[in-house]
């Protein structure tokens, strides 16, 4: 056999083998496709169940939410947990790609965990914490005022401390109003209202950022007042 | 013959009247006894009470006996509610350094938790419903 003919055969054989290999990977078998859908679906469901579990825990630990608000939120998320767990069982039992695909899409079409629940409930929890911080700051005002008055009576210059305290009180009050407003706005929303209520959830995020800015100022005032008082009043150490 | 006069029976001597002197003595003695009783009674009534009276009256529950138990019980009952720590917790009348630090720590913890929740809300994974 001539050399050029031999070389041509080698090239053709190589191309044939490469073609078989590429074809096999592109044409996934139905069983493998079903398994892939189920694996991806299980992972997505697990991620949502983990999110829901964390949200329920945080809601139960909230300090400013009412008992009714906690109960309502918890009931919602426990219902989603039950439904998603059932969907996972159904998905895992499917035997056709078409049925598994339908189940997979229902993870997102019927359960707005990442689209609605997590942004909404996390913002409610954030608002709860901010409201609690505002309450603590407000409760601190008379204590700090007593020390400032004590220092003033002792002849100390408390002008700066008094100014900071006034600002701290005002910012805490503003933050309290905004945070409580976020709780009142987001708590009644339901998944059935999604995506129409998406803008409401996003707007609450903007309010929270404004509230957080107020609290940052108020907290900085509280720290600076305490530091200043301890310089003026040794007993405050 | 001369009739002999019948001798007159001898009349018993009239009973000797009871001398008046003993009766007088008895009367005086009675009056003295009554006076003595009255004096003793008066003395007993007016004399100051002694501890023996309290003991005697203790056979029946009296306020004196009940009151004697009160001072013993009062400190035991009152001490837990009037301890300085409990009073300070209920109504802090003064500010202590520990209270200030605790308040600032609690505020910082709230703000940190709020930031964490805000981050979780803002970084929610996108829902990608494209099946593999």
Features:
heterodimer, A: 237 residues, mainly alpha, 2 domains, 7 helices, 84% helix, B: 132 residues
Structure overview:
The complex is a heterodimer of chains A (237) and B (132). With 237 residues, chain A is mainly alpha-helical. In chain A, helix 2 runs parallel beside helix 4 and helix 5 runs parallel beside helix 7. Chain A is elongated, with a radius of gyration of 31 Å. By secondary structure, chain B is an all-alpha fold. Chain B has 5 helices and no strands. The termini of chain B are far apart. Chains A and B meet through helix 2, helix 4, helix 5 and helix 7 of A and helix 5 of B.
Number of helices of chain B: 5
β-sheet strand percentage of chain A: under 5%
Count of alpha/pi helices of chain A: 7
N to C succession of SSEs of chain A: HHHHHHH
Query: Which structural class should the secondary elements of chain A be placed in?
Result: mainly alpha
Q: State the helical fraction of chain B.
A: 55-70%
Average predicted local confidence, pLDDT of chain B: 58
In quaternary terms, these chains amount to heterodimer
Give Rg of chain A in angstroms: 31 Å
Distance separating the two termini of chain A: 101 Å
Mean pLDDT of chain A: 91
Distance between the ends of chain B: 193 Å
Number of strands of chain B: 0
Write down the overall geometry of chain B.
rod-shaped
How are the secondary structure elements laid out?
The complex is a heterodimer of chains A (237) and B (132).
Chain A: H1 3-26, H2 30-60, H3 67-93, H4 97-109, H5 113-153, H6 159-186, H7 198-232
Helix pairs in contact in A: 2-3, 2-4, 2-5, 3-4, 5-6, 5-7, 6-7
Chain B: H1 20-46, H2 51-57, H3 63-81, H4 84-90, H5 97-122
């Amino acid at each position: 056999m001539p050399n050029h003919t031999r070389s041509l055969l080698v090239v053709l054989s190589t191309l044939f083998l490469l073609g078989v290999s590429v074809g096999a990977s592109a044409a996934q078998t139905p069983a493998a496709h079903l398994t892939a859908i189920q694996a991806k679906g299980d992972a997505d469901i697990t991620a949502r169940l983990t999110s829901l579990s964390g949200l329920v825990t945080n809601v139960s630990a909230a300090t400013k939410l009412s008992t009714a608000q906690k109960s309502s939120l918890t009931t919602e998320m426990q219902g989603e947990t039950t439904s998603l767990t059932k969907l996972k069982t159904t998905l895992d039992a499917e035997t056709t790609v078409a049925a598994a695909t339908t189940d997979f899409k229902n993870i997102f079409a019927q359960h707005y965990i990442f689209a609605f629940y997590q942004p909404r409930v996390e913002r409610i929890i954030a608002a709860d914490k901010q409201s609690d911080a505002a309450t603590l700051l407000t409760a601190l005002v008379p204590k700090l005022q007593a020390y400032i008055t004590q220092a003033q009576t002792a002849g100390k210059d408390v002008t700066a401390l008094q100014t900071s305290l006034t600002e701290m009180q005002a910012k805490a009050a503003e933050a309290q109003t905004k945070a409580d407003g976020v709780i009142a706005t987001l708590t009644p929303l339901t998944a059935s209202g999604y995506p129409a209520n998406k803008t409401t959830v996003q707007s609450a995020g903007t309010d929270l950022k404004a509230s957080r800015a107020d609290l940052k100022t108020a907290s900085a005032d509280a720290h600076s007042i305490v530091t200043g008082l301890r310089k003026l009043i040794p007993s405050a150490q | 013959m001369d009739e002999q006069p019948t001798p007159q029976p001898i009349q018993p001597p009239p009973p000797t009247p009871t001398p008046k002197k003993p009766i007088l003595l008895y009367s005086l003695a009675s009056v003295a006894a009554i006076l003595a009783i009255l004096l003793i009674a008066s003395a007993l009534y007016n004399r100051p009470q002694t501890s023996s009276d309290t003991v005697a009256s203790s056979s029946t529950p009296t306020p004196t006996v009940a009151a004697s138990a009160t001072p013993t019980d009062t400190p035991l009952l009152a001490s837990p509610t009037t301890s300085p720590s409990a009073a300070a917790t209920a109504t802090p009348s003064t500010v202590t350094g520990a209270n200030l630090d605790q308040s600032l720590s609690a505020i910082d913890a709230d703000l940190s938790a709020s930031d964490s929740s805000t981050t979780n809300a803002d970084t929610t994974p996108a829902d990608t419903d494209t099946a593999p």
